[in-house]
Amino acid sequence: MLGRSIALSTFLLALGAAAPASPPAALDVENVTHSLNVSSCPGYALESLRETNTGLTAALSLVGPACNAFGRDITNLTIEVTYETITRLHVKIYDTDEQQFSIPESVISRPQAPTSALRNSSDLEFHYDTLPFAFWITRRSEPDAFPLFDTRLASLPSTPIPPNNATDNSTAFDGFPLVFEDQYLQLTSALPLDANVYGLGEAVSSSGLRRDVSQNGTIQTFWARDIQDPLDENVYGSHPIYLEHRYNQTTQKSQSHGVFLLSSSGADVLLRTPPSSNVSLVQYRMLGGILDFYLFSGPSPKSVVEQYGALIGLPTWQPAWGFGFHLCRWGYLDINETRAQVDNMRAANIPLEVMWNDIDVFHSLRDFTSDPVSFPGDEMRVFIQNLTKNHQHYIPILDAAVAKQVNSTDLYYPYIEGAKQDVFMENPDGTEYVGQVWPGYTVFPDWFANNTQQWWTQGLKNWSDSGVEYSGIWLDMNEASSFCDGSCGSNANLSITPPQVLPGDPGDLITDYPEGYNSTLSGPSGNITVNGTSTYVRRAVEVAPPLNRRGVGAGKQSGVDLNTPPYAIHNGFGRLSIHTIAPNATHAGGYAELDVHNMWGLMEEKTTHKALSDILPGKRPFIISRSTFASSGKWTGHWLGDNFSKWEYMRLSIQGILQFQIFQIPFVGADTCGFIGNTDEELCNRWMQLSAFTPFYRNHNQRGAISQEPYRWDSVANASRTAISIRYSLLPYWYTLVVEQFLIGSDILVTPVLTPNASTVDGVFPGRGNVTWRDWYTHNVLNTTSGGNVTLSAPLGHINVHIRDGSVILTHSEPAYTIEETRQGPYSLLVSQTSDGHVFGTAYIDDGISSPPGPSKTLAFSVTAGQVKITAHGAFDVKQKLQVITVLGTKKPTVVKMGGESKDGWEYIEAQEKLVVKGINLDLNEDATIVWKSDV
C-alpha cells in the first residue's frame, strides 16, 4: 500500500513533492449581481520621487476618475521602499493621510531602520514604472530572470474568476491595476507558470503543501474562525506569507524567496493561471488596511524561514519537558478519572509527561475556576504536586470568552474585576459586547485596553493559588469564537443559558469510524458497533440582532460598513459576524474588530506569555494555542485544531506541521488518533507512531467518543512504547533544532503508513549523488535510487525511520519514563559517515527550563575517516557522560584510541560496517578525540 515519506521537519524535502494525482474541484460558479470589473479602475501615477542610500519615497496619485469598486478610492498614497538588510526589502504603500488601519508596533515590533547604505549591495533590486505605476523586484545576481514579484500586468487579459462561497453582493474579477480604497485593496503579481508556492495559511489544503496555481486555482481566505478542519477553507489562523521555489533552467540552480504581507485585514489571496496565459498570478484582495510587503531573498528554503523570523521574531524557548508525551480528552469528568489516566499510563509503562484537562475542569464552564465537586481545589493541589514529584506536569484549558455575571448574587470575580477595570470589548454605543460560549453569555477581553495585562495576570495567579498549580496553559476558542451572530445584547436574559447539545449526549451520539474500519477484524478495540455516522458541529444558538453600520472606523473613516463590507471575502461561514465577534465591536483606542480580528489570538498569547513569566518566574512559559498570526511563535506553540479520526486527517497533519515551520511556529502537532469521531486500534497505532516524530505530541479526543488512551489496546501500547523510546533518545537532536529557531532537520526520514489494512509502505528517499540511508533500528543500508519509490515492510506497530549519511546525532542512551529522568541518564553518539568519511554536526545542551536561558554548552562533532573530534563551548556543566559511540560506514579497525590511550570494549559488525565503542565515560565539558585505524 502507498505511504509517504516525511523528513521531520525537513521542509526542504517537501519542496520536491509532486503535484496531486487529481486536481481539486473547480471553484463554484455562482450568480453575481455586482457587475463592476475593477480592471476599469484608473490606477496611480508615481511622482515627487526622493531617493536615498537606503531606498526611496514617492507620492502616488490617482490618474483618472475614481471607480469606487468596493468603497471609495483614496486619491493620494505614499510608497516607501527600504533596503532593510541585504536579504530583506520592504515595500510599503499607504494612504498619505494615514487614516487606514496598520498594525501597531506595540503588537508586532519591527526592526530598527537601517543605518548603512544597502541599496547597492542588497540581494534584491526594486524597479518601477511611473505611469501607470507598477513595480517589480529582481535578484541582483539574475537581473534578466523572471522577477520575484511583478505587478506589470496591464497586457494580460482581464477574465472573471468565479467566486467561491461568496455572498450575492460580491464579485471577483481579475483587474490588474493597483486599487486602494477605504474598504478594498487589490494588488496582483505575476508568477512563473505553474509556480511552486508554499504557505499562505492556516489551511488544510486538498492540493497538499504545494498550493494549487492551476486554472482552477486557490482562494485562501484570511479570517480566523472556529471550524473543525475543513478542506480548502479558512480556519483558525492567518499567515499571509508564501515561499516560492524556482529552478532556473539556464543556471541549473534552485532558489527560494519569500513574500510576506504584514496585514491583519480580512482578505482573499488568489492563486491561479488565467486561460491561455503564459504566467500564473497571485492576487491580494483586502478589506482595508495598507499594503505592507516584505521580500526575502533566500536563496534556500531554510534561509527564507530564517529571514522571516528575523523580521517578526524568533520562536519562544520551549521547556525540555514540553517534548514529552501529553494526554488529554474532553470528557475526563472529575479528578478521579483524570488521576486514573496517570496511574494507568504508568502501570502500562507508557511514558506520560503532561496530563491535561479540557473544559470539564471548570466550575459552570467558567474560566479561572475548578469545579468544587468534581475538581476540588485541595485535591487538585495534591494531585498536581504528586505529578511534580514524579517529574510530570499539568496543563488546563483556558477559553477566550469570560462568563458574564448573571445577577448581583453571582460573585464571579474575573467578570466583576474586569468590568470594574474596563477590560472588555464594547459595542459601538459603549455598552458591553455580549457573546455566548460554553458558560452561557460572555464578554471578551480587550487586549488593547490599559488594564487587561494586569487583570489577566491576576486571574491566572488566583487560579494557580486556588490549587490548579499548572505548568502551562492551553488557549482555545481564541479566534475568538462566539455562538451569537452579533452581540447578544446588553439586555439579554442572562439567568438563562441557551440550550446546547454536546457530543455524546442523546441527539449527538458519536458513531463515526475511520475509513476501512471493520469491527470483526479490528481486534480488542473496544469499539461500539452502531450503524450510521455523526459529524459533530459546535452548534450556535441563532440570535441575530440588527447589525448596524458604525459611524467611525479604526482609521477614523466615516460611513464605512464594518459588518458587511462591500466586497465579501470567501469566509466559510458567510457573513463575517457568524460564530465570532462582530466586526463592528470596538477596542480601546478606537480600533474596530474588523481590522484586528485576525490578531485576537496573537494578542491573547502575548498577554498570557507575559503573565506566566510573572507567575512562574525564571521558567519558560509553555503555551499551546489554536488561533495564531504572524509572530505568534514568539509566544506560543500550536496544535492543528479539531481534526477527525480519519486516515485522511493523519495524512493531512503532515502538511499542517510542515506549513507552520514556514510560519515560524515550529512547536506544532495534531490531536493524535483524531479528535472528532471514534478512532480504532489500527489508526491509533499508526498515529501514535507518527506523532512521536512531530514537535508537539498529544493524544486528545472528544466527549462521547470511545476512549483512545494508548494503553487501551496492547498493540497500541507496544507501538507507543517503542516510538516514545526513540523520541526520548532523540531529545538532544530535537532540542538542538529548536535552539536553531527553526525545524528543518535533514538527518532523519520517517515513512509512516497512512492507509488502513496495509503491511508495506512506499517511500521516496531524496538526495542527489551517492546518498546512503540506513535503517534506524538495524543500521542496515537501504538499497535505493535517489528520487525513486522504495517499498518497505511496515507491519502494524512498526514505523520506518532512516538516517542519512553525513549525520552525527547525540542521543540519550537510556530513555526513561519522563524527560527529566531521561536527561539524567548517559549520552550516546551516532555517526553515519559519507563515503569519504567526513561528517560535521552540533548539539546544544542547557538546563531545559530557565527563562531567559542561562549557561549552555554547544558541542561540535567533526568526523573524518578514522577520527571523531569533540569540541565543547560554553559554561553549562554537563553532568552526564558520553558512554557509547557508534560509527556507521567504516572499515574494521585494529585499534581504537581515546586521548592517545588504547581503548578496550569495542566491537565491529561487518554486515553494517558498524563500529561500536562502549564504556567511554567521556566528560562532555572537555574536548576529546577518538581515533580508530586498521594498523597499529
UniProtKB/TrEMBL annotation:
Residue stretches in coiled coil: none
* Record's keyword terms, sorted: Glycoprotein, Glycosidase, Hydrolase, Signal
Query: Which Pfam families does the entry link to?
Result: Glyco_hydro_31_2nd (PF01055), Glyco_hydro_31_3rd (PF21365)
What Gene Ontology terms for biological process does this UniProt record contain? Answer: carbohydrate metabolic process
Query: Is-annotated flag, keyword Hydrolase?
Result: yes
Instruction: Report the residue ranges that make up the Glycosyl hydrolase family 31 C-terminal domain in this protein.
Output: 740-809
| Cross-referenced InterPro entries | Gal_mutarotase_sf_dom, GH, Glyco_hydro_31_AS, Glyco_hydro_31_C, Glyco_hydro_31_CS, Glyco_hydro_31_TIM, Glyco_hydro_b
Which residue positions does the secretion signal occupy?
A: 1-18
Which CDD domains does the annotation name? Answer: GH31_MGAM_SI_GAA, GH31_N
Which Gene3D superfamilies does the annotation name?
Glycosidases, glycosyl hydrolase (family 31), Golgi alpha-mannosidase II
Q: Which GO terms describe its molecular function?
A: carbohydrate binding; hydrolase activity, hydrolyzing O-glycosyl compounds
Among PROSITE patterns, the record links this protein to: GLYCOSYL_HYDROL_F31_1, GLYCOSYL_HYDROL_F31_2
Domain Glycoside hydrolase family 31 TIM barrel residue range list: 316-737
Q: Which family does it belong to?
A: Belongs to the glycosyl hydrolase 31 family.
Protein name according to UniProt: Glycoside hydrolase family 31 protein
